[in-house]
């Protein structure tokens, strides 16, 4: 009986180790993905591309001033959020 108990306890310990190892790898991957998203959104060319898309959308609309203000506010929000995170 003792041999089976040791074997079972060893299996449980190994499975716990595997679980915590996988959990750690998932947490690290999530942190890296968040960091990469922040770095991408903080690049000047990305922010400029967002501004240009908003400016084009504002220029092509029948209400350009309202759309232009909306695009500028979206750009400012994006810049502030990327700055404070």
SS content category: mainly alpha
**How big is the Rg?**
25 Å
Question: Which range does the strand content fall in?
Answer: under 5%
- Main β sheet profile: none
Mean pLDDT: 80
* SSE pattern: HHH
How many DSSP helices?
A: 3
Q: Note the gap between the termini.
A: 57 Å
Low-confidence blocks of residues:
none
Helix coverage percent of residues? Answer: over 70%
Give me some keywords for this one.
85 residues, mainly alpha
List the helices and strands and how they pair.
Elements: H1 2-41, H2 44-59, H3 64-84
Brief characterization of the structure:
The chain is mainly alpha-helical. It is 91% helix and 0% strand.
Characterise this structure.
The protein is built from three helices and no strands. The chain has helices at residues 2-41, 44-59, 64-84. The longest helix has 40 residues, at 2-41.
């Amino acid at each position: 009986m003792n041999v089976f108990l040791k074997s079972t306890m060893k299996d449980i310990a190994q499975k716990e180790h595997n679980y915590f190892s996988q959990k750690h790898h998932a947490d690290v991957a999530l942190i890296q993905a968040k960091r990469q998203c922040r770095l991408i959104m903080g690049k000047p060319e990305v922010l400029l591309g967002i501004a240009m898309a908003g400016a084009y959308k504002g220029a092509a609309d029948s209400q350009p001033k309202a759309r232009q203000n909306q695009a500028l506010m979206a750009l400012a929000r994006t810049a502030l959020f990327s700055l404070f995170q």
